[in-house]
Amino acid sequence: MKNIMTYCVLAIASSSVYAADKPNILFIAIDDQNDWIGHLDGHPLAKTPHIDALAKRGTTFTNAHCQAPLCNPSRTSLMLGLRPTTTGIYGLSPWFRTVPEWSNRVTLPQHFANQGYYTASTGKIYHGFRRNAKKQPRKGQAGQPIQTEFEVTGKFGGVGTKPPKKLIPETPMGNHPLMDWGVWPLDNDDTQKGDYQVASWTVEQIQNVPKDRPFFLAAGFFLPHVPCYATQKWFDLYPDDDSVLPPILKDDRADTPRFSWYIHWSLPEPRLKWVRENNEWRNLVRSYLACTSFVDAQIGRIVSAVEQSDFADNTIIVVWGDHGWHLGEKDITGKNTLWDRGTKVPLVFAGPGITPQQTCGQPVELLDIYPTLIDLANAPTRSDLEGISLVPQLKDAATTRTRPAITSHNQGNHGIRSERWRYIHYADGSEELYDMHADPNEWTNLAHLPKHASVIEQHRKWLPTIDRELVPDSAARVLTYDKETDTAVWEGTTIKRSDPIPD
Question: Is 68 exposed, middle or buried (0-12, 13-18, 19+ CB in 10 A)?
Fold first, then answer.
């Protein structure tokens, strides 16, 4: 850690030597945001006018996917420029700096700090947040001394004010305090929301950043992560009837392998069965949509501040989500899946060097952001990044990509997303295959059909050649599997083939 801090200090001290015309970077993250974004057509009623307007100003990727369907490994992968199968980080813990191999790895913002950039962050960029390196994180949290990752850090943001008691009935699997949603605060005061404060802090930074240095400014929004509370005015954007519900198929999991349940075996997020039986499905969906629209408005505040600043013509803006989220599809709510609803995310670039009004439907990865920003800023390249720059597509969206998007969730479980197909390979060898053109809801598993054998073989070739075991101290949503004994272990508990699937 000392080497990193020394390097960054030296870079800051010598910042005057760097050209003033280097592009600024505004780096905006949204937590648990699937493709329910207006221009992505993930939900026909989704209202996100500010993200949609930004997409028109630049290039949007409509087939972008995360490296892991879980916060910590996804964000770690993006910031390190390495796949989870390379880092060995698959769970909500550990914080990557505690892994000796990655303790001195230069992250994306540190790479720019080393080029003389002023780096600042607020909200959720990494998973977990703690200023005091000696403070122990909560169980299942990857707490970190965040001040070593950015020059300046603001508030975490988070949930903001909470109701005196949960708004929904007690949920199964522990009645986790985060499992809540609905209208809050009741007085329609958005300023009480953590994400509103994140946007306000970011706007202040834009107005007061050092004038002699380019900036790398990161803003991470918590919503629509649960508890997804929004004020009434955001709920009013969406009808209080079943038209808001996503399409589902009865017995959708009948043709999926049993192992597909193992990677989200026992989670705080309730199953579709529970939200239906407790009349909470519509409330959950409206809450998610309301929170999405609220966050969109906060992004609009930030983008407006840039447009009104001296940096309007020299700021690259990238908006991304860390992974998807199910709202009943595949009989579940939450994350931890390798289907499109769990992996597909928004990804928008706008600013200098980016062709406006472009849409790219080729598969891309969050892993590609690190090398892309390096290329856009003409910063020193790195040969140890596993992503591929998107600059060719940012100039011409039709430029061919050479590989699919790859998502992994614990060792041995991988999703391969090409332009037409979704292929899933589980640790026990079971498989799924979906024709995303004919079956965008992934309702019909084609993996057993001989006529698709060549398609499966083509996608198998992209399975990671490095598929590392869990690093020490891995915890929360971790799964191991021993193929010789056919033994799966979820968070320390063995799963038997005869065990009933938790509901």
Answer: buried
DSSP one-letter code for 403? S
Say how far apart CA 369 and CA 427 lie, in whole Å.
28
Q: What is the pLDDT of residues 413-430, one digit of tens each?
A: 999 999 999 999 999 999
Residue 423: inside a domain, yes or no? no
Q: Tell which residue, 37, 49, 84, 75, has the closest CA to residue 407.
A: 84
E strands, 303-403, where?
315-321, 326-327, 333-334, 344-345, 347-350, 358-360, 364-365
| 192: three-class secondary structure by DSSP | helix
Supply 160's token pair. 């903001």
CATH number of the domain bearing residue 86 = 3.40.720.10
Which residue type, as a one-letter code, is found at position 17?
V
Q: Which domain holds residue 377?
A: 2-249+285-398
Determine the Cα–Cα distance for residues 360 and 406; give it in Å rounded to an integer.
17
Query: What does 57-120 look like in DSSP terms, one character per residue?
Result: HSEEETTEE-SSSSHHHHHHHHHHT--HHHH---SSB--GGGSGGGTT---HHHHHHTTT-EEE
Averaged pLDDT, 208-237: 97
Token pair listed for 62: 């409509």
DSSP reduced 3-state for 321: strand
User: Prior bond to 224 cis, omega within 30?
Assistant: yes
Q: Is residue 8 part of a domain?
A: yes
- Among residues 425, 453, 496, the alpha carbon closest in space to that of 85 is found at 425
In our burial notation (b when 16+ CB lie closer than 10 A, e otherwise), range 272-286 reads bebbeeeebbbbbbb
Q: For the chain, how many structural domains are there in total? A: 1
Record the tokens describing residue 11, joined without a space. Answer: 């870079």
Instruction: Of 138, 176, 165, give the one whose Cα is nearest residue 268.
Output: 176
Nearest one of 461, 321, 240, 451 to 40, comparing CA atoms = 321
Please state the pTM of the whole predicted model: 0.94
Answer yes or no: are the C-beta atoms of 123 and 222 closer than 8 Å: yes
Active site residues: 71, 127
440: in domain: no
In a domain, 83, yes or no: yes
Per-residue pLDDT band for 156 (boundaries 50, 70, 90) equals confident
Helix or strand (DSSP H, E) at 479: strand 479-482
What would the two tokens of residue 219 be?
């803003």
Angle of CA points 494, 500, 503, to nearest 5°: 105
Q: What is the mean pLDDT of residues 129-157?
A: 62
Structure tokens at 328: 């009943």
